[in-house]
Amino acid sequence: MSTPASHPRPEEPQIHESAQGPRVTPAASRTAQTPRPVPGPRPAAVPRPGRPGPSPAAASRAGGAPTPAPPVQRAPQATPGPVPAAATAPSVSAAVPQVQLIPASAEGALDAAEEAVDLLLDTGRAPGDILVLTTGDPHPWAAHELSFGEAAYWALHAAGDDVFYADAAQAQRAAGRPVVVFAANGGPADAAAATLPVALARAGALLIVCGEPQQINSVLGAGV
């Protein structure tokens, strides 16, 4: 049995390098980049307190309905108020205090002074803010406290937590307080003229004078 003759294969076309396109050799150090996601519409930003929100056009571009901007709240402008008085008044007032006159006779001046003290306490004045000066007989409280000695009496004055009573002879030693109540309840003829300037100097904000108007006005009119 004869073997069929093998037919020669048609010659394959030769591809020359000159016919091939340029070879692209990927760099070994480069890595393929992952495509970035396409950003979608951004949500409308939440407005900060006190700042307006996004404009209607910006909200429309973001895909949401326009949100009206909240009103900007402005803080009210502070108005200058009165300057508070000093907590403690000096012995001699830097400014002239307000003076109030309560007409009273020499016999009724001490009672009028007591009523003035009660009214001051009822309206919120602290007891330690009040000093009472007399020109004639001392107040019963002062007479009682002096019975324990001068040291105990002035210790109460230094404590400054209660109404303090002093007569004309002790007025120079008494320290100033916001309110002084002056009772022209007799004494020597020149007691009111000598003690009233001291009372005015000790009063930090208010001086209440209880006495005969003609006598008090003559002292005040003399340049007190």
Task: Characterize the structure shown.
The protein is of the alpha/beta class. Helices cover 25% and strands 14% of the residues. It contains six helices and five strands. It has helices spanning 56-61, 109-122, 140-146, 150-159, 191-202, 213-220, and strands at 98-103, 130-134, 164-167, 177-183, 203-211. Strands 1-5-4-2-3 form a five-stranded parallel β-sheet. It starts with 55 loop residues before the first helix and ends with a helix. Mean pLDDT is 74; it is low at 17-22, 24-62 and 74-94.
Briefly, what is this?
The chain is an alpha/beta fold. Helices cover 25% and strands 14% of the residues.
Secondary structure: elements and pairs:
Layout: H1 56-61, E1 98-103, H2 109-122, E2 130-134, H3 140-146, H4 150-159, E3 164-167, E4 177-183, H5 191-202, E5 203-211, H6 213-220
Parallel strand pairs: 1-5, 2-3, 2-4, 4-5
What's the Cα radius of gyration? Answer: 50 Å
Strand order, main sheet: write it out. 1-5-4-2-3
* Total beta-strand segments: 5
Distance between the termini: 164 Å
Q: What summary fits the major beta sheet?
A: 5 strands, parallel
Q: What amount of the residues lies in strands?
A: 5-15%
Compressed to H and E, one letter per element, the order equals HEHEHHEEHEH
Mean pLDDT: 74
Low-confidence stretches: 17-22, 24-62, 74-94
**Fraction of residues in H or I helices:** 25-40%
Shape, per Cα inertia axes = globular
Total helices: the number is 6
Instruction: Provide the structure class.
Output: alpha/beta
